[in-house]
Structures
1.
Amino acid sequence: MEIRVDGLYKVFGPDPAEAVQRLRLGAVTAEELREEGKTAAVVDANFHVRPGETFVVMGLSGSGKSTLIRMVNGLLGPTAGHVYVDGQDISTMSAKNVRLVRQNSMSMVFQHFALLPHRTVLDNAAYGLQVRDRPKGERLKKARESLALVGLDGWEDQFPQQLSGGMRQRVGLARALATGTDVMLMDEAFSALDPLIRREMQDQLLQLQASLSKTILFITHDLNEAMRIGDRIAMMRDGRIVQIGTAEDILSRPATDYVAQFMRDVDRVRVLTASLVANRDELVLHADSDPAAALRTMRAHGLAGLVVLDAQRRVAGFVTEADAERALAAGRAQVGTPSAAVLPTARHDTPLAELCTPLSQTNCGLAVLDPDERLVGVVTRGALLNALGETSAAG
Ligand SMILES: Nc1ncnc2c1ncn2[C@@H]1O[C@H](COP(=O)(O)OP(=O)(O)OP(=O)(O)O)[C@@H](O)[C@H]1O
């Protein structure tokens, strides 16, 4: 399922539609509206959350995030514009139909999640299905499965007060998962948790998302959280979305001074990933590459060997300096069949901070692989130091 937000506005106060007209024409600013007793909470929001994507809306307090998410789940009607959930325009639907879409397609996880104190963890996790009138057997089965997914198996018969804050939030997540909806709306879902637990929850969400591929709209005021979990991030300021992009897009090409200022607080070595600093082509060979050129490249980069790829960009092996010299001495025009030496590898999304140790143990660079095990590129010690040097200078 997907969510599409199209020219969405919400103005609070008298005569909101007329205020939207003036905003559209550029005839008034949000500040001027405020003097008239009106608040432009969301101004011309446009974005598309793709199926299976984690899309984060990030902004400071008052930037309009809650208003936006409440329009997406149909609790609040827009002043203008449209919200489509899986192609259905919920902004023009009857309240009853909106409720149906919400029940069938969307689940919510909030910051202060109201668990029912006199009900067990299992019943709490099953609650979302209960309000959807599902049969008891199905409710309990799904609730058990989703509790297991969030690591709470064995806790089914406990009561909320016996759980830590992090565990309670997991029950909230389990409740949302148990409903089986494709779309999950998460409003500051981890913001009330201690930093360590919060990180654990983020990891858990990333892990779940790798197998479940829900369509997630996640609201946060924490930039590092946005950068960690968002496939893409929308930066919001004073009701407007000022930039949409991946963490790396936004970090390396902030659209406005405001965004650039924000980026100064980002823990870059944890946010920037291996794929960003991987050298994509220069350090890569094919079996028909020229051995003399291969030797020059190795020497120029201080590498003991280069990766050889097959036609699908999968790592076929490795050519060392000695291999290339032998090929050259034998007068061969191609490096030929590589040796099957195992090369250290890293996943494309490994944070830079985690590349230092494996790189210190090799003089060949790290092969960076995408989820299909295809080579993204090679990270060398020099490239990493460069990136870290730039980031610490910028930070
Ligand atoms: N029902 C309302 N009536 C009038 N103004 C409102 C209403 N709801 C929100 N606002 C105003 O709209 C603006 C955006 O608020 P919103 O709660 O959406 O921001 P937010 O980014 O979610 O902030 P926070 O993180 O503090 O919740 C604020 O100026 C707020 O005061």
2.
Amino acid sequence: MKPVKVGLMGLGTVGTGVVRIVEGHQEDLQGQVASPIVISKILVKDRAKARSISVDHGKLTEDPWEIVRDPEIDVVVEVMGGIGSTKEIMLEALERGKHIVTANKDLMAMHGPEILAKAKEKGCDVFYEASVAGGIPIIRTLIEGFSSDRITKIMGIVNGTTNYILTKMSQEGAAYADVLKEAQALGYAESDPTSDVEGLDAARKMTILATIGFRANVSLEDVDVKGISSVTQEDIQYAHQLGYEVKLLGIAERQDDFISVSVQPTMVKRGHPIASVNGVFNAVYVHGEAVGETMFYGPGAGELPTATSVVADLVAVVKNMKLGVNGRQASVSYKEKKLKTDEQIASKYFLLLHVEDRAGVLMQIAQVFSQYDVSIESVMQPATPGQKGAELIISTHAVSKASMNEVLKAFAELSSVQTIKSVYRVEG
Ligand SMILES: NC(=O)C1=CN([C@@H]2O[C@H](COP(=O)(O)OP(=O)(O)OC[C@H]3O[C@@H](n4cnc5c(N)ncnc54)[C@H](OP(=O)(O)O)[C@@H]3O)[C@@H](O)[C@H]2O)C=CC1
Ligand SMILES: N[C@@H](CC=O)C(=O)O
Ligand code: NA
């Protein structure tokens, strides 16, 4: 049995997990693919760095081209991250007939179509299951499990770092900055955690899911993004009073042939399965016209969960090699992309306003809502002893994003509304 040779690019959190699983589960892997899987070279930035795993030092290289140009290597497993030079390295690896497994959502969200086209041209596989919701097999599920259906909604907690932070803020009243440091120490966060907390990581993942789910090339620029850095302990406490949890949700929706994709902190009604997804766990809710509601749950980041998906992709590549069918995946995006306008995007909203505490203010606010045809579901004025002015918590029925923008513009000009403290989309 000729071994399948793998060039591993990256030996950080995920790369270390890949080595552990390939070595620790070798017998089971061989049983499935009838060949040993051997990691023959490993790319790192610094060969001298101390590692949490023992590897043959002779396999380490700091030169990516040593892997790309090695004719013995069949598959490149890319778990180093990055976009610019990583893309060039991946394209050259494909040019030389190497299959690719990657966990890199940045790369696949920005350059997925180009990389997949090159793979097709060269008869190579490119698999990227770990790029979205680390340990949940959601990409394969959307491509294969839902191939017979028409998906109408994909809604997910797809960033483990922010879910970890929001859970600790909600359950323990913890401070944002402290919990972020914990998530970094646990290996959940990106090398620049701004992309986690500002929603960009989730937006990249939603770009990938929407492209697959709606079978049209969605790009990152199509995603409306807001992160969690403005979420306050006060918002979370008011959410609890109204029966909600605050979650960073990616929401991709399709109506007729028009789609919208967004990422934002969202108030999710307790009782909706997404509201109870806590810590580093991710969940992706998928609604299909025929199947109805489904949900997929599991760890979204971390060494072994993410490496499980990477090595499963590696097994898929080797099985295809045995069958001689690499690069034969059907195209996932054959539809024309049509984006919804703000008039077509509808949701319920939660607003927290700081207003003047005097007669007639509520009337002025109600008039603004009425002018833009926004129907109010409830209004609450919590007691704020000793505070100047009053707080108003308003929830609306489903309204268009365009109408809500007009309402917010009108509030900004109203002297009785001193601050628009928070605006949240509401789900569930
Ligand atoms: N961490 C997680 O839970 C998840 C991560 N991902 C994705 O997986 C990828 C890897 O993430 P993670 O393991 O956390 O990252 P780490 O920062 O822990 O590891 C990156 C590894 O790649 C090496 N590396 C980085 N840049 C270069 C370079 N230019 N040349 C040579 N080697 C390089 C580093 O070398 P050295 O060790 O010498 O510094 C390190 O071994 C990213 O794309 C990330 O988005 C996806 C899902 C979950
Ligand atoms: N930083 C990411 C890692 C997995 O993709 C996250 O927190 O989800
Ligand atoms: Na996945």
